[in-house]
Recover the amino acids of this structure.
């Protein structure tokens, strides 16, 4: 269907633009014609060369005459140095001079000189020795056979790969043929056939670190890390596999400098807040741009806003960056299978991101799935089973303590327990004690993960087919789970002559999330400890009735209302490439992504308390919502590589065509006569429209890159992009972006080599560039009316839905970065330090409006500038490397800083109460609690007469509510078959504590509190952190505490994020079991947390479920 | 052969260049996208009558669905002496104890009211110099939107005092408005209503804006006159109050229902399109209840102690005891639970659930109020006999004898205000507004009435609490807004 649409579009283009097209063609032809006539002018040649490479001479002739040479690059290897000295000589004669001693003949066809290898070469071949066959085995440094190694006769297509035992057999031309052994992650080894025949063993050395040889994926092109001028971090499948997570993004936590991921909830599948290098935008998306196998992947939750929330929440309409929660709902990344992922690249600076133009402002995250490798067909199976639980519970008041607080609160307010209101004191059994955390979030969540894959192939064609299933339960009462089944296929083909290349990947994930209608954490932390039992003696929901009405909101009633979401996610990509000329490659990438989510929310009468229970059939509801997202992308690309002088040029020209369409519809079915009928919408007596949404996003661009490195020492990388986005109004759709990156590998300079022998690698790099941000909702330039879903006088209503100004345009980010990469002791220790400064101007904001305008926001460009600066430091070292024992560590640290540099006239805007120029965007403006009055126990606020209401004029600027620094430390140890990996995440930050999220009112009805409050003010003269207990806000008569800095505190933590122990069974066992490989492992996530935070968890705060501690046991086998 | 390859390659390059050229030149068209299928661009809405009508009538369906009648009558009733609260939820507890705060909750219908005003202003702007829609329809829609703008400014100023007067949809202007004095707000309300009166049809129209219907669900001339009568009364312009009320009372379309409730017989006051109705809100479809008032006030058992609104209040002792013996309104407009203890609740709207067909609409303006307005206006002009006649019409319908007390101006005024208390209770905040406009609030809430203390309020009654606090979030966003004193 999509293709049809595309064709239709193309047709349109053809008809509508034929005329323009013809003009363009004529123009191009004219230019070509001019070139040709210009070139025919010079027919004589002047050359003066001594021992020059033939290629150079040919280039010279080409330049002087305009004649083009046509030859196979491979042949030039046999060329002899040229000695020639001619002056203004006709071309024919000059050629004769040049080709005197060369093994080629030539022929002039039109303006092209076609070279041919001379016959004698072939004659020589006939007389040469017959081909010989070489056999052997390839080992790694530990003596293990290496399967999958490419064995190639150098300079030819003649190649094979080693089998499972590392054995190979190759037939080569003669004894002197050079055979190259190459394998990813190992240094290439070259030996002659003669050497091997004489008994030389082939042992491949593992690449010391990933610094030099590893190829860095920058999306539209790749680079060797050594030569990269950009700031790119990589997390590989090895690190992802060691973590029992079902959302691959969570596997990045703490591992990438500059990337901060805050899990917002421990409910399986929940959204995480992800920021690269801080907040660039005051009000808009600060989400990185995600690309999965070349296909842009939406970072917005598919969870509908037209349906009641589940424990994972619903996404908020407006991105609220200030509170650091980018909407909630289910994470779109939960619809990817971590086991299918080969690597995740995080692109940060201008050099790496400018080629993404308007989408690269907040960084780019490239997810690449696994591809097959040439070699024996392999089957890998991985099965693990685990358990999850809330790692840390809060210490809350028990019943006697709670009752004491309550009685004192009433006494302080001069009240006595009201039998119609204070049920916790008058009606409930005050001898009861329930630890609600244990009851509501204290269960064990099951975790199951099973994956299988089949991969292999020949040198020309490789494949990988895999499938998986995972299931993660919850810690809530009741049976809820997030289940995922997935399939993934990847096929690669390269023609024998290496001219054509095709790659196809497709993955499909079905996820079924079934959650209660509420995250019980908030209730568990606040419910009175003497609250009644969940069920009465008959097993019914216990409402503890008082004259016919319930005395509490029994949380278990929420389990009768459930939400389920089923998501199907297809991502497929086809990449076709052809080499047109030596060095010139044309390729086109076609991508398609289709995600569909069906949600239902069932509201049963059983969840409703008496007396209204059984009275209203309309209370029973079955809400259905569908959300459908489909997008396609086509990217033709032309790349060219050429050696020029002593350097190498990489050029790229490409174009992007992208469309994304989203449709959602919410329908409410109501009026069921019985709870049992609710799942069937057909049994409803009424249907109501709950909202719909349609958006179309289109984007296109032309981009280019020029990279040049001279002697692999001096590197320049230029990227440009011209972009159009449909999110902007007419005349504002286009923007130009670009960057320059430079590098100097000073370790290759002889003065460094001679003087600093311990320095094995050293590079300075710097980049500067401009990227943009178009992460605003679609159609913001239109002022619109939408259907109200309700009919009046039989006619559906239209209500205004959006204000606009129509003139807003790109947000522009200017990124500056400098870094140094160092390798010591043969790259056993690698250090890298980076400083960045990103400045975002032309801020696009949903300017907050007072509601007297009718609306809460309007889209606007503000001349404000936000600056993010920071240091990133990474350190990798191989601490010990012996025959049996190896130990390596890696460490990263990021210290970010955010500042609102400029904001003209902030005083006359609504932002004056939120931000301060010269301060971080993360600050809050709040009342400052100066303490409590020792005489009365009442809170008072700074710069005010105590107890008088304070106004926003008394707001104080708080410390930035964000991270001061963060990072991680990974250690990997292996001894023979035993491998131990452990990873610590550390964060220094300020955040809201228990009081900041759950309210400050201690002593109120049905409000439990942390035991710390027992030190509250009790008698005149007491000095305490906590005001007097109070039932009716008498300690804070004007409700100022909730707008104060009272709940703000240190939320730093060090977490043993991940631990993985694996044991590779001995060789003999494997042989007996006919397995290539068998490993058992134990993995743990969020095992230990060290923190002084007053609250449930320093990362998720104190209102939602914290990240679970998950421990799994598993086995991995290869056949 | 090699040359052939080269030629092929050259045309391939040419093709690639052409392809790229296509992409670049077609960009402009590609990223210019049509508006979303789920929305209409505002500029096109007022190009045809059907869309323009839908943009106006949506206000009525929002007012019904949002339960404006219930929200205003409950919060005002709790603030005054009409309702007793049982809930611990601050949304109702704070109004009840007269301890509202500007943060974190907001009280009164601030944001909803201004959204209706925005919509009305959009229709007014759309009707200006409109050449696409028939003049008769333009007049009706313009009249209705002026009426709505006046209606909501009236409620805002009575709730918050001086309020921003919003007469435009231009946010550049409206986002910086400061508060306009109540007198000027009233001037605008009266001007808008006068204009509405000249433009509206005298009969009720259906969705075509011109054809008459028996459904009294859109404002007509009489509705404008009725609200105008009230605005004049509140601003103490008794001459005009009387004349506007007379316009409605003398209109043969309207007559007092003889039955107060369906229990007394058909054609009772709160049924759909009753003869007493001047303007009602139709129940929008699809519906899950007849009226929000019915399902919000009718108690099924004891009052809810957790709810932030519905079923959390009962009739206050002050209101219960205000009824004279034999008052049929106490019998038919107050319901009682069969619990022990029993709770009394407002029972003007008697269907808790949805019925088919729908039998009750939310009453906004009704004839009985016009008699009481005229009675008060006549009394204040010294026309005691005229006032008495109007008062006794209302008393008679309630099964009471003619008023027999003193007939001096003050006594008669007190009698009329008392009649308003028992006739108009829990309808759109009448009691709270009456106490404020007549200067009786302090005496009722503070000593000697001491309702404030009765309601468990802490401290002593403060006259500042007559006005609700302006939401703190608004003051933060509009730098020209000032808070009311006392908050």
């Amino acid at each position: 269907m999509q293709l049809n649409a595309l064709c239709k579009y193309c047709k349109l283009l053809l008809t509508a633009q034929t005329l323009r097209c013809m003009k363009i063609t004529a123009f191009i032809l004219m230019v070509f014609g001019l070139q040709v006539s210009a070139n025919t002018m010079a027919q004589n040649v002047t050359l003066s060369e001594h021992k020059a490479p033939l290629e150079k001479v040919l280039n010279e002739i080409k330049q002087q005459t305009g004649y083009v040479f046509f030859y196979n690059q491979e042949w030039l290897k046999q060329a002899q140095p040229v000695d020639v000295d001619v002056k203004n000589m006709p071309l024919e004669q000059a050629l004769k001079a040049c080709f005197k001693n060369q093994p080629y003949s030539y022929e002039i066809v039109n303006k092209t000189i076609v070279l041919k290898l001379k016959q004698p070469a072939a004659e020589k071949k006939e007389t040469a020795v017959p081909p010989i066959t070489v056999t052997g085995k390839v080992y790694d440094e530990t003596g293990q056979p290496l399967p999958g190694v490419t064995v190639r006769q150098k300079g030819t297509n003649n190649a094979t790969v080693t089998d499972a035992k590392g054995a190979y057999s190759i037939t080569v031309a003669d004894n002197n043929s050079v055979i190259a052994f190459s394998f990813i992650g190992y240094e290439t080894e070259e030996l002659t056939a003669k050497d091997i025949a004489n008994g030389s063993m082939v042992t491949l050395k593992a690449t010391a670190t990933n610094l030099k040889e590893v190829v860095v994926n920058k999306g539209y092109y790749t680079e060797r890390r050594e030569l990269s001028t950009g700031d790119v971090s990589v997390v590989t499948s090895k690190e992802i596999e060691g973590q029992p997570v079902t959302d691959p993004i969570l596997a990045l936590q703490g591992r990438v400098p500059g990337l901060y991921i805050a899990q917002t909830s421990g409910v399986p599948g929940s959204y995480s807040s992800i920021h690269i290098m801080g907040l660039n935008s005051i009000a808009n998306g600060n989400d990185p741009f995600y690309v999965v196998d070349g296909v842009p992947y939406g970072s917005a939750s598919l969870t509908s806003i037209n349906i009641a929330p589940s424990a994972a929440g619903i996404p908020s309409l407006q991105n609220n960056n200030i509170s650091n929660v980018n909407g909630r709902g289910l994470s779109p990344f939960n619809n990817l299978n971590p086991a299918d992922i080969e690597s995740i690249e995080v692109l940060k600076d201008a050099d790496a991101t400018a080629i993404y133009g308007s989408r690269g402002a907040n960084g780019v995250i490239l997810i690449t799935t696994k591809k097959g490798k040439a070699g024996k067909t392999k089957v890998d199976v991985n099965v693990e089973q685990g358990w999850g639980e809330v790692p840390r519970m809060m210490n809350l008041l028990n019943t006697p303590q709670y009752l004491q607080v309550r009685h004192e609160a009433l006494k302080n307010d001069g009240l006595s327990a009201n039998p119609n209101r204070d049920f916790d004191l008058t009606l409930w059994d005050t001898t009861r004690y329930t630890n609600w955390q244990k009851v509501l979030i204290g269960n064990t969540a099951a975790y199951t993960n099973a994956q299988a894959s089949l991969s292999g192939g020949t040198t020309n064609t490789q494949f990988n087919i895999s499938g998986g299933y995972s299931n993660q339960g919850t810690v809530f009462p009741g049976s809820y789970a997030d289940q995922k089944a997935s399939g993934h296929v990847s096929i690669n083909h390269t023609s024998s002559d290496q001219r054509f290349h095709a790659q196809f990947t497709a993955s499909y994930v079905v996820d079924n999330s079934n959650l209660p209608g509420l995250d019980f954490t908030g209730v568990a932390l606040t419910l009175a400890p003497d609250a009644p039992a969940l069920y009465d003696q008959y097993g019914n929901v216990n409402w503890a009735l008082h004259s016919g009405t319930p005395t509490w909101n029994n949380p278990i009633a929420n389990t009768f209302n459930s939400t389920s979401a089923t998501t199907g996610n297809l991502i497929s990509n086809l990449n076709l490439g052809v080499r047109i000329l030596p060095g010139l490659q044309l390729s086109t990438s076609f991508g398609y992504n289709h995600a569909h989510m069906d949600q239902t929310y069932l509201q049963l009468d059983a969840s409703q308390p008496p007396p209204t229970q059984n009275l209203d059939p309309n209370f029973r509801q079955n809400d259905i919502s569908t959300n459908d997202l489909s997008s396609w992308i086509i990217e033709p690309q032309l790349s060219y590589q050429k050696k020029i002088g002593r350097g190498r040029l990489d050029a790229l020209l490409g174009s992007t065509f992208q469309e994304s369409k989203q449709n959602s519809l919410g329908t409410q079915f109501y009026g069921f006569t019985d709870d049992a009928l609710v799942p069937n919408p057909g049994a409803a007596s009424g249907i109501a429209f709950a909202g719909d949404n349609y958006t179309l996003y289109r984007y296109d661009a032309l981009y280019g890159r020029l990279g040049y490195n001279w002697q692999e020492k001096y590197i320049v990388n230029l990227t440009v992009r011209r972009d159009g986005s449909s999110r902007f109004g007419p005349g504002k759709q286009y923007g130009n972006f670009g960057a320059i990156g430079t590098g100097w590998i000073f370790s290759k300079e002889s003065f460094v080599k001679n003087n600093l022998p311990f320095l094995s690698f050293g590079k300075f790099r710097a980049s500067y560039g401009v990227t943009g941000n178009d992460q605003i909702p679609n159609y913001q330039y239109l002022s619109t009316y939408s259907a109200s879903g309700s009919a009046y006088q039989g006619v559906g209503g239209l209500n205004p839905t959006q204000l606009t100004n129509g003139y807003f345009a790109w947000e522009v980010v200017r990124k500056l970065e400098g870094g140094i990469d160092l390798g010591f002791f043969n790259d056993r220790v690698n250090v890298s330090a980076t400083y960045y400064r990103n400045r975002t101007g032309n801020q696009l904001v949903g300017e907050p409006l007072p509601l007297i305008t009718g609306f809460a926001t309007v889209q606007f460009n503000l001349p404000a500038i936000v600056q993010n600066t920071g240091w990133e430091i990474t350190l990798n070292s191989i601490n010990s490397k012996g025959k049996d024992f190896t130990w390596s560590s890696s460490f990263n640290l990021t210290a970010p800083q955010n500042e609102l540099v400029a904001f003209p006239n902030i005083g006359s805007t609504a932002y004056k109460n939120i931000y301060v120029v010269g301060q971080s965007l993360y600050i809050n403006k709040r009342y400052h609690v100066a303490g409590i009055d020792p005489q009365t126990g009442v809170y008072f606020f700074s710069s005010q007469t105590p107890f008088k209401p304070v106004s926003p004029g008394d707001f104080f600027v708080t410390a930035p509510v964000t991270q001061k620094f963060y990072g991680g430390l990974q250690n990997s140890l292996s001894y023979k078959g035993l491998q131990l990996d452990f990873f610590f995440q550390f964060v220094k930050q300020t955040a809201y504590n228990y009081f900041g999220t759950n309210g400050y009112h201690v002593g109120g009805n049905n409000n439990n509190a942390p035991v710390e409050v027992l030190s509250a003010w009790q008698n005149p003269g007491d000095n305490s952190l906590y005001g007097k207990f109070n039932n009716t806000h008498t300690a804070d008569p004007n409700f100022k505490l909730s707008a104060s800095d009272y709940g703000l505190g240190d939320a730093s933590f060090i977490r043993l994020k991940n631990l993985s122990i694996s044991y590779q069974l001995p060789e003999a066992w494997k042989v007996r079991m006919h397995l290539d490989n068998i490993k058992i492992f134990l993995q743990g996530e969020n095992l230990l947390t060290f923190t002084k935070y007053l609250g449930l968890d320093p990362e998720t705060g104190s209102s939602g479920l914290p990240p679970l501690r998950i421990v799994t046991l598993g086995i991995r086998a290869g056949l | 052969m090699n040359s052939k390859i080269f030629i092929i390659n050259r045309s391939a390059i040419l093709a690639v260049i052409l392809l790229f050229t296509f992409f670049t030149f077609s960009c402009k068209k590609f990223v210019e996208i049509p508006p979303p299928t789920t929305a209409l661009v505002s500029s096109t809405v007022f190009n045809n009558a059907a869309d323009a009508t839908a943009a106006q009538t949506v206000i009525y369906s929002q007012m019904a669905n949002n339960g404006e009648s219930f929200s205003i009558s409950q919060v005002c009733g709790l603030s005054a002496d009409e309702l007793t609260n049982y809930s611990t939820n601050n949304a109702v507890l704070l109004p009840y104890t007269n301890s509202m705060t500007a943060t974190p909750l907001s009280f009164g219908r601030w944001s909803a009211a201004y959204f209706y005003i925005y919509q009305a202003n959009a229709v007014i702007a759309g009707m200006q110099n409109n050449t696409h829609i028939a003049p008769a329809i333009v007049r009706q829609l313009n009249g209705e939107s002026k009426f709505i703008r006046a209606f909501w400014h009236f409620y805002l100023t009575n709730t918050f005092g001086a309020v921003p007067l919003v007469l435009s949809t231009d946010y550049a202007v409206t986002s910086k408005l400061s508060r306009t004095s109540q007198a000027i707000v009233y001037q605008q309300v009266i001007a808008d209503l006068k204009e509405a009166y000249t433009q509206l049809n005298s009969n009720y129209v259906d969705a075509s804006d011109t054809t008459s219907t028996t459904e009294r669900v859109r404002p007509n001339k009489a509705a404008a006159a009725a609200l105008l009568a009230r605005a004049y009364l509140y601003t103490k312009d008794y001459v005009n109050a009387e004349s506007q009320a007379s316009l409605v009372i003398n209109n043969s379309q309207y007559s007092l229902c003889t039955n107060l409730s369906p229990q007394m017989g058909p054609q009772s006051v709160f049924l759909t399109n009753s003869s007493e109705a001047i303007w009602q809100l139709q129940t929008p479809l699809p519906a899950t209840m007849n009226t929000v008032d019915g399902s919000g006030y009718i108690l099924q058992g004891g009052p809810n102690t957790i709810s932030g609104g519905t079923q959390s209040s009962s009739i206050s002792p002050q209101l219960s005891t205000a009824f004279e013996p034999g008052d049929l309104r106490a019998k038919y407009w107050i319901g009682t639970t069969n619990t022990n203890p029993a709770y009394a609740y407002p029972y003007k709207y008697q269907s808790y659930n949805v019925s088919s067909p729908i039998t009750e609409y939310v009453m906004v303006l009704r004839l009985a109020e016009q008699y009481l307005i005229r009675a008060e206006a006549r009394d204040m002009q010294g026309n005691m006999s005229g006032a008495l006649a109007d008062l006794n019409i209302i008393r008679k319908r309630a099964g009471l004898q003619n008023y027999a007390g003193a007939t001096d101006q003050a006594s008669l005024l007190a009698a009329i205000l008392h009649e308003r208390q028992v006739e108009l209770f829990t309808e759109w905040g009448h009691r709270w507004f009456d106490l404020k406009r007549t200067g009786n609030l302090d005496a009722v809430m503070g000593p000697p009435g001491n309702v404030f203390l009765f309601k468990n309020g802490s401290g002593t009654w403060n006259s500042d609490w007559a006005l609700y606090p302006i939401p703190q979030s608004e003051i933060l966003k509009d730098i020209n807004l000032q808070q009311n004193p006392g908050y």
